[in-house]
Amino acid sequence: MADGHTDVMLITSRETKRWVLPKGNLIKGLDWHQAAAHEAFEEAGLTGIPCPTAIGEYRYAKRRRNGSLRDVSVAVFPFAYLDQASEWPEQDERETRWFGLRDAAAAIQEPDLAKLVAGFRAPPPPPGLAERVNSAVQAHARKRIPMLGWFHALLPKQGRFFDLFEAHAQTLVAGADALALLLLGGDDIETHVQEIVRREHEADDITRDVLLDVRRIFVTPFDRSAITGLIGVMDDAIDQMNQTAMAVTLYEVREFPQAMRDISGIIVEAARVTAEAIPLLRSLGPNAPRLHELTARLVQIEGHSDELYEIGLKAAFKAAGDDAMGFLIQRELYGALERTVDRFEDVANEIQGLVIDHA
């Protein structure tokens, strides 16, 4: 959310009224993540963008109507919230409530599910907030203690690298959200295209600032090549989002197949993971285990994206028939989406390199 926190929607189960995530049985004709999205609406009225790659599984004992227990395994998928309907099928059968991450994990009785929920992290504060606070504190201190101001002037300047990295990560999140909304089709495609273009321009400005700091700052937190490598692949990711948006505009595409939407769900998840990982670079040693987990997640979802790319391209070829131009347009869109996910894997590789070299 804009104010830098994440909430989780929990619902009560029908029988025991314990707090759980929306869930249900597999639905014929729907993939697992699509069935999860369907259940999110049926049970809580939620619509959003599901990521097709599960974040994990948990097991629990489900009580049947006859009172017996059955061991059930449940896959959990990230689901980026868009809206909650005013009415939905099971509205009168369950209670719904938004929880903060810590409170949600505490409210859930299944230990494995609570662990999965606790594994999420709130996004970083809006870019620039920490910098403004620190600057104000330092200015006040220098006024009260003149010697401190003189000493501060002698300290080596390390630039704004961390702030700029985090600001760029936020453009990735915003761009990914706009891309996923674009691929839903509808009447607001041009609005989402403009948002992606705006975020891409913001990212270019941030990248330019990073490269300027690399040249002018004497002391840098990492090797200069590592700094330019990381900001470079981050910028490549939003450039690829922009290329997708430009292709949609050029070819006036208005409808998009499910495989493209699924890849966009992966891009949303990749941007979320990146936005969590980047602030952890400020303290590599203590954060190394979590960074390993996050980079492994990026590699995992990139592999799933490869599968979706192949499935989608094959389906597009079969559906095209004699429409060669239609197939070429689909192939270009799929290619831009797949390259976007590839760039997030590059981000994972750059972060892993930093952890290995500096942690």
Report a brief summary of the structure.
With 359 residues, the chain is mainly alpha-helical. 62% of the residues lie in helices and 11% in strands.
The best one-word shape is globular
Can you give the mean pLDDT?
Answer: 88
Number of strands: 7
Order of helices and strands: EEHEEEEEHHHHHHHHHH
How many whole angstroms does the radius of gyration measure?
23 Å
Main beta-sheet strand count, sense and barrel state: 3 strands, antiparallel
Total helical elements: 11
Helicity level = 55-70%
Distance between the termini: 31 Å
The share of residues in extended strands comes to: 5-15%
Which class best fits the helix and strand makeup?
mainly alpha
Which strand order spans the largest sheet, edge to edge or round the barrel? Answer: 2-1-7
Low-confidence stretches: 126-142, 150-157
What would you note in describing this structure?
The protein has 359 residues and is mainly alpha-helical. Helices cover 62% and strands 11% of the residues. It contains 11 helices and 7 strands. A 3-stranded antiparallel beta sheet has the order 2-1-7. The protein has a two-stranded antiparallel sheet with strand order 3-6. β1 and β2 (19-20) form a beta hairpin. α6 (161-182) packs antiparallel against α9 and α9 (258-277) packs antiparallel against α10.
List key phrases describing it.
359 residues, mainly alpha, three-stranded antiparallel sheet, two-stranded antiparallel ribbon, 11 helices
Draw up the topology in text.
Elements: E1 7-12, E2 19-20, H1 32-44, E3 46-50, E4 56-63, E5 69-76, E6 79-84, E7 96-100, H2 101-107, H3 111-118, H4 129-144, H5 146-154, H6 161-182, H7 189-216, H8 224-251, H9 258-277, H10 284-320, H11 324-358
Antiparallel strand pairs: 1-2, 1-7, 3-6, 4-5
